[in-house]
Amino acid sequence: MTVVGALERGRDACRRRAWADAYEQLSIADGQEPGLAPDDLERLATAAYLTGRDVVVYRTRAHQELVRRGDLPAAVRCAFWLAFVLLNRGELAHGGGWLTRARRLMPPDLDCVEQGYLLLPAARQHVMGGNWVEGGELSEKVASIGERWGDLDLVVLARYVQARALIRLGRVPEGVALLDELMVAVLADEVSEVVAGTTYCAAIEACQETFDLRRAREWTAALTRWCAARPGLVPFSSQCEVQRSEILQLHGAWPEALAAAGAAVERFTAEPGHPAAGTACYQAGELHRLTGELSAAETQYRRANRLGRLPQPGLALLRLAQGQQTAAMAAIRAALDDEPDPANRCRLLPACVEIAIAARDLPTARAAADELSGFADQLDSPVLCAAASHARGAVLLADGSPRDALSELRRAWTAWQNLDVPYETARVRVLIGLACRASGDEDTASMELDAAEWIFHQLGAVTALAQLTRPPINCHAAPAGLTSRETQVLRMVATGRTNRAIATELFLSEKTVARHLSNIFTKLNVTTRSAATRWAHERHVIE
Asked: Roughly what angle, to the nearest 10 degrees, separates helices 325-337 and 342-358?
């Protein structure tokens, strides 16, 4: 095959988006003297990136040749894309060095679109650093430069940064609407492959940040189709596997979710320093924990931690599943203490409620549920609203108000059902069953618990099934409308303690204990301590 033939085949493969063929043919052409010109080196670099190969050598050569020719704007753009790749894979010093070189090369008074490319990293850094107003304003300026020069790649990259700034400023509907508009350009094939794949992943990430499950599912499905139409595509298809795994997990396809997570772990951990490696390991750990493979879960959580992804709330929930309530409580408290970001706190708070209830720390559980409710009100996200109702119901049940709990729990059940999230639906049905039992409605309790058990079996939720057979005592903390203090007194009565002993242990007067006991007899419709004790044992108030 001649060099000219290989070059033309490589260019044609780029046009057809057959990136593996493009890399092969352009590499053949580059292996002959005098090598590829800068434009074709850029094509080879793009093909290398999209097939999971290193791009530094090709873009470096292209940049050096453009500088030699005196084409400084093109050299600056080449340096930007080299920095873009390096920064995205976590090589901050190397990527930053290329940005500094690009800024030094660019004549300050030259009016060109590359000036916008040089401003884009600063806008992104503002948003990542919490300077959302400055980041939004600078990204608007960058987008205007892109629009003036007709460079849609720059416009889309800048508008994405602007959308993230809007979301962080609490202007979620505006930010999400802007992301939807950007996806129109991607779906219409109006931007380059690298920008299209980057925007797909960025839009899904933003949906996850705003807990917009419907959009995350829609864009993940679109990304999957986009990747499938491009054989040999590596970076975005691998990123897609992590997001696909999360979506599949939520909708109950756990074997497929685990396979997708495993593929992502294998891909990302093979590339040293890849920023998504920790997330992939954490997702694999979550699925192992849910399916009862607790040792494998711990291994993946530890790998995630080594790779820079904090393993919470998964590791704390793993400790809870292992019966280590103190360790679980310490871990979730530490995670919340160190986490200022609202989106990340929203991922920790439901676990905090669950762990605190199991540890009988109702003030902490109530505070976490209240904070989660506040975030749900701010974002108006169906997922957060469901989680908040779930948390409030769990706290009310543990605090001795089963009838009030039922109202919240049934609201959560409806919300989880509408979102098609079977695991959370089953978990809330467990609480509904326990609340019905505490209210004396044993028939409904039995049906709800049976339905939850059936769903857990369908999912393979081994850990949840184990917990269902031995529900925490706090789930039965307040049957028949007893308050938490009355429940505490009833448990002590059932162990044979006298009023005086109870008063001493609880730092109450005997008169107060007698009043609690009178209220208990009235609510249980009994007249003796032995009858109250029997009632408590029959309804599992006593462990």
From this structure: 160
Q: How many domains does the chain have?
A: 2
Amino acid, res. 484: S
Q: Where are the alpha helices (DSSP H) in 210-292?
A: 213-228, 235-250, 254-269, 277-290
Instruction: Pull the structure tokens for residue 224.
Output: 């999957």
pLDDT along the chain (543 residues), means of 10: 78 90 92 88 93 90 94 95 87 93 91 95 91 94 96 95 90 90 91 90 83 85 84 72 86 91 86 81 96 94 94 95 91 94 91 94 94 88 93 93 93 94 96 91 90 92 79 50 79 87 79 88 89 83 64
The span from the CA of 74 to the CA of 114, in Å, is: 8
Instruction: Judge whether 467 lies within some domain.
Output: yes
- What's the CA gap between 519 and 516, in Å, rounded? 5
CATH of the domain at 498: 1.10.10.10
Identify whether the C-beta of residue 403 lies closer than 8 Å to the C-beta of residue 411: no
CATH number at residue 457: 1.25.40.10
Tally of CA atoms within 13 A in the half-sphere of 357 that contains its CB: 29
Which residues are CB-neighbours of 187 under 8 A, at least 6 positions away? 222
Out of 477, 495, 520, pick the residue that ends a domain: 477
The DSSP string of 439-499 is: TT-HHHHHHHHHHHHHHHHHHT-HHHHHHHHS--GGGGSSGGG--HHHHHHHHHHHTT--H
Residue 74 forms part of a structural domain: no
Single pTM value for the model: 0.72
Contact between 435 and 479 (Cβ < 8 Å): no
Which of 446, 477, 508 is a domain's end point?
477
Maximum separation of any 2 CA atoms in the chain, in Å: 102
For residues 387 and 473, membership in a common domain is answered with yes
